[in-house]
Amino acid sequence: MRHIVARKSLHRLLEETKNDNRLRRVLGPVTLTALGVGAIIGAGIFVATGAAAKSVAGPALMVSYALAGLTCVFAALCYAEFAAMAPVAGSAYTYAYTTMGEVFAWIIGWDLALEYAVGSATVANGWSGYFQSVMAKFGLVLPEYLQKAHFAYDNGHFVVTNSWVNLPAVCIVVVVSLILIKGIHESAKVNAVMVFIKVTAVLFVICVGVFYIHPGNYIPFAPFGWTGISFFGTPMFGATNAGGDPVGMIAGSAIIFFAYIGFDSVSTHAEEAINPERDIPIAIIASLVICTALYIAVVAVLTGMVPYAQLSKDAAVADAFRQAGLPWAEFIIAAAGVAGITSVLLVMMLSGPRVFMAMARDGLVPSKFFADVHSKFRTPWKSTIAIGVFVCILAGLLPIDALLHLTNIGTLFAFVMVCGAVLIMRKLEPKRKRPFHCPWVPLIPLLGIGSCLLLMASLPAANWWRLLGWLAIGLVIYFSYGLQHSFLGRELRKLHAGR
């Protein structure tokens, strides 16, 4: 059992990527930044903004985005240091293996699987809403039993709807999975086109919407207060809604944190970067800074155009222009939203298989399946299919509300682990070459840990229990399979037996 806390050396990590089973290095700094922007700007701004402003934060959501962005900056600097040191697939899972040991690596890898799979399902749900709104303009409406998820989320409880399955969400997941199997180069091209479309749409929203702002809509600026902190469902600071969930500026930051998920996915593509030591840190930080500025500007425009209480929960950006008397702009934004959310789904589903591939290389999950790289396309095609099927089930049956919160807490937990890993690695290997240095250590990692825990505490209690349940399932799998099949564990057992 001693090897469950054994660490994997950075030298070994780099050696494992030199054989024929590695991925193809074709991504430069611009493409990587586009992947980051593609993963960040999407359902978070086109979908989550309306619900968060309407029911949780009001116009103070602008400050919520700034707080969430600052939290991500702390984590991004830590990610950048590790990604430059260990430019291999796996992201936070790999970093945890080199600093905290195998069992902690498994926990974070299993958590990342939750983040990317559930995040993909959330995005697919948001895509479905925008796609159906565009189709409705042409008089094309699906039967009610194919329009939305089978379950709805009402005050912490799941209830059955009149729909069987969210068919558009399932279809887009299938299409994206096929694109990803084809290859990273093709996926990056598709993403670049969609990123251009949606960034243009966001700039359009800002430049046109600013002329329709009514300053009176900003009053009251923080109708739900400035806090909204709870711990396992027990309110600590601030108010709660009818369901007992916290509301306020900090609570809003915890909910819209989903909008920033994506910059960390850049690190999962380090093995496909041409010059990862330089380009990965640039892409992580550049994509985060660009998107934070755009987010704050869009929220300022939306809450200025329409009173926060009148914002749509499903398609806030497009609906705001409809309420402002600009139906032609509503259609343009909805169409751009479809393209924008598609690119988020593409990047998130691109990342999940690479985490599983890293775990399979260590023997923690079946390597013949999850580590199998297609001989022609050089992509982890089997794991892409497996994750695609899982995402189809989630997206088709579960509502966006429950998926959104579960994605947030999984991501925040991953960020806590990465920030802690930087502190540990600085202590374990202070002389290790670091192409990128996280500044002001230990201050930045500690601020990252503290701010992430603060936002986690502001999420509804049900999300904590779901996270703990997911991790418990993961530990059962680890101790029943991963412990016996770990390549590092086998080597250590042989070494111990030889003595």
CATH topology: Amino acid/polyamine transporter I
Q: Output mean pLDDT.
A: 84
Q: Numbering strands along the chain, what is their spatial order in the largest sheet?
A: 1-2
Largest sheet: 2 strands, antiparallel
Share of helix, binned: 55-70%
Verbal overview:
It contains 18 helices and four strands. It is mainly α and 499 residues long. The strands form two sheets. The protein has a two-stranded antiparallel sheet with strand order 1-2. A two-stranded antiparallel sheet has the order 3-4. The protein starts with 9 loop residues before the first helix and ends with a helix. Strand 3 and strand 4 form a beta hairpin.
Question: What layout of secondary structure does this protein have?
Answer:
Elements lengths: L9 H7 L12 H12 L2 H15 L3 H25 L6 H8 L2 H35 L14 E4 L2 E4 L6 H16 L1 H26 L19 E3 L2 E4 L11 H8 L19 H30 L10 H8 L3 H35 L5 H4 L10 H17 L2 H29 L14 H15 L3 H25 L1 H12 L1
Antiparallel strand pairs: 1-2, 3-4
Features:
mainly alpha, two-stranded antiparallel ribbon, 499 residues, 4 strands, Amino acid/polyamine transporter I, globular, two-stranded antiparallel sheet, single chain, 18 helices, 3% strand
